[in-house]
Specification:
The complex is a heterodimer of chains A (315) and B (282). Chain A is an all-alpha fold and 315 residues long. Chain A contains 15 helices and no strands. Classes of the chains: A mainly alpha (315), B mainly alpha (282).
Chain lengths: 315, 282
């Protein structure tokens, strides 16, 4: 209906226009296309090149200098910045922590999200409300989430401390100990992101071909057999996607860490990006920070290409 | 009768397990949020002994003081300005580019599109130092645009992909007919494509808005003046000032996440569709 109305409007405009005869003869002209090309593409391409592509190239260039960001970079030191990064213990800690985040995403978050999706994909009273509730942490700002949990974990006023005290124990300061800080961050990560992965699975489950499951059931498969041999295999593409997002997300994680621990104590809860912030940005060590950025870039791009090639060829 | 009960028992235990499991997860999600909301109504002394329960004495003063301070509204205003700028500029530039990629055939089209989608491969953080220097050299440091323009640039890849997929579904015959009738590409874009694409524009707009509203790293690097800070920066400073007066911090957190939650309840369809469908295509 609306389409019909639009067509009417378009023809009306055409009739009103003065160029009707010419255009009608030439049809979709090169002139018209050229105008669109020079008007419509440059804004996006320019912004993208200026603020996304060039800075990555410049990071590679700056990473060869010892530079504090003022004046022009002159003190060329070759690959020394990379050597400094790789010799820093905190860098390897950050890399290990990113690995831990990925491990927890795969071992805890993904099974949890999948189980909940299987429960909530069916229609029953409250299912939609629960989906929304579980999705809500995902849209909250990471900063707010981090602050909420720094209250939850607070050794004097927090919820965890209060539970400890009811058992008569001395409350721990979870975020202040190198043994527990990263564990505490990992729990917040699961809290914040499981709902997103659950929604991915629910969307996939709802678009599944129900007749395949019914056929399996008619052939005598039990509910759990149908689940294991029909439903889960059909979800493999979504599982691969969910794993992809978990890994990419871990490589970007920063906002959540800052209000909780700032990467501390003693660098024990740094991620790659918080390590970059603490060592490069906050001290304006442009060369060193750029070297970290380039390493992170290489990890991200290598991962994205390898993963797509190995696991997502068919999509 | 007794037969029916016997066959129902295993089903019921499964249902019971399911209900219990869902209840545990719901508590896990809800308790930190509710404790934050309620904590804002308590005095610091009560918070220490009773962080879980309802306040014995409702301290409306905590919330009122924040609501009547200029600070809270200034933070929200700054966030709103930055997010609105980001959304408008993203929608304009991305929809124009997406229209070209969807409807105009030209040499190098697919190459340029792949070029744009490079932006999906790495986070803004990787190049944030050179980005800072670029923004400084352009004289945009400590301005709203210094935050908004890089945010637009980083949201372009996803936005163009989503919009292009939708635009492509508009029948090509429609465009051809309009062109034969003397309508230009630009008029077609303005009077046909855009009005028909309201749902996807709303979805892309909502994702961009939520991302920009919640962003921390870019404003942190690009802004130096308190008066320009968006709320994620402001709340971190607030927390630094009132370091252990948790009742005030909790009230502040509640008030700052309130707009997000209201927006989520109003636009949940767009948000869920956008964040998951967008992700699937990414």
């Amino acid at each position: 209906m609306t389409v019909a109305r639009r067509i009417a409007i378009v023809s009306a405009m055409g009739v009103a226009g003065e160029t009707v005869p010419q255009a009608a003869i030439r049809g979709p002209s090169w002139d018209g296309r050229f105008t669109v090309l020079i008007l419509f593409l440059p804004p996006a391409l320019l912004l993208f090149t200026l603020f996304v592509v060039l800075p990555i190239g410049e990071a590679a260039w700056y990473s060869g200098f010892n530079w504090n960001g003022f004046g022009k970079p002159t003190n060329w030191i070759g690959f020394d910045n990379y050597r400094f990064v790789l010799e820093t213990r905190a860098f390897w800690l950050a890399l290990r922590n990113n690995g831990l985040i990925i491990a927890v995403s795969l071992a805890v978050q993904l099974p949890l999200a999948l189980t909940l999706a299987l429960m909530l994909a069916e229609r029953f009273r409250g299912a939609v409300a629960l989906r929304m509730l579980f999705f809500m942490p995902y849209i909250l700002a990471e900063i707010a989430t981090g602050l909420i949990f720094s209250f939850v974990y607070d050794g004097d006023y927090g919820l965890v401390a209060s539970i400890w005290r009811t058992f008569g124990a001395e409350p721990p300061h979870l975020l202040a100990s190198t043994d527990t800080a990263m564990l505490a961050v990992l729990i917040v990560i699961v809290w914040k992101y499981f709902g997103f992965h659950m929604m991915l699975f629910i969307a996939a489950l709802q678009s599944l071909d129900k007749s395949l499951i019914e056929a399996a059931r008619i052939d005598g498969a039990t509910r759990s057999q149908a689940l294991r041999h029909v439903v889960i295999p059909l979800l493999y593409p979504t599982i691969r996607l969910s794993v992809f997002f978990a890994i990419v997300g871990s490589l970007q994680l920063f906002d959540l860490v800052m209000p909780l621990t700032r990467g501390g104590p003693a660098d024990s809860s740094n991620t790659m990006v918080s390590f970059l912030y603490n060592n490069g940005i906050s001290r304006m060590r442009v060369g060193y920070g750029s070297a970290i950025g380039v390493i992170l870039f290489v990890i991200c791009v290598t991962f994205a290409f390898t993963y797509k090639r190995w696991f997502m060829r068919d999509e | 009768m007794s037969n029916a009960e016997i066959t129902r028992t295993p089903l019921d235990s499964a249902a019971l397990f399911k209900t219990a499991f869902l209840a545990v997860v719901a508590v896990f999600v809800l308790v930190p949020l509710l404790a934050t909301l309620l904590g804002g109504f308590k005095s610091l002394g009560e918070l220490r002994v009773n962080p879980f329960g309802l306040p014995r004495q409702w301290e409306w003063q905590n919330y009122a003081d924040i609501l009547f301070s200029g600070r809270y509204w200034q933070l929200l205003r700054n966030s709103l300005i930055i997010s609105t700028l980001t959304v408008i500029l993203t929608l304009i530039t991305a929809s124009m580019a997406a229209f070209t990629f969807a409807h105009v055939k030209f040499y190098g089209s697919s190459m340029l599109l792949s070029y744009l989608t490079l932006g999906l491969l790495f986070p803004a953080a990787t190049a944030v130092l050179p980005l800072f220097i670029k923004v400084r050299d352009l004289g945009l440091l400590d301005t709203y645009f210094g935050v908004a323009l890089p945010q637009v640039a980083f949201s372009l890849a996803m936005s163009v992909l989503l919009l292009r997929r939708f635009f492509k579904d508009i029948p090509h015959e429609l465009l051809e007919a309009a062109l034969v009738d003397g309508c230009s590409y630009i008029k077609f874009f303005r009077y046909v494509t855009l009005p028909l694409s309201r749902p996807i524009l709303a979805t892309v707009g909502t994702i961009t808005f939520v991302n920009s509203w919640n962003a921390y790293l870019l404003p942190l690097v690009m802004l130096n003046t308190d008066a320009l800070y968006p709320w994620p920066l402001g709340i971190m400073i607030y927390q630094g000032e009132y370091s252990s007066e948790w009742h005030l911090i909790l009230a502040f957190i509640t008030l700052t996440i309130l707009p997000t939650i209201i927006l989520f309840l109003l636009a949940q369809k767009h948000i869920v569709a956008g964040l998951t469908a967008g992700a699937v295509k990414g």
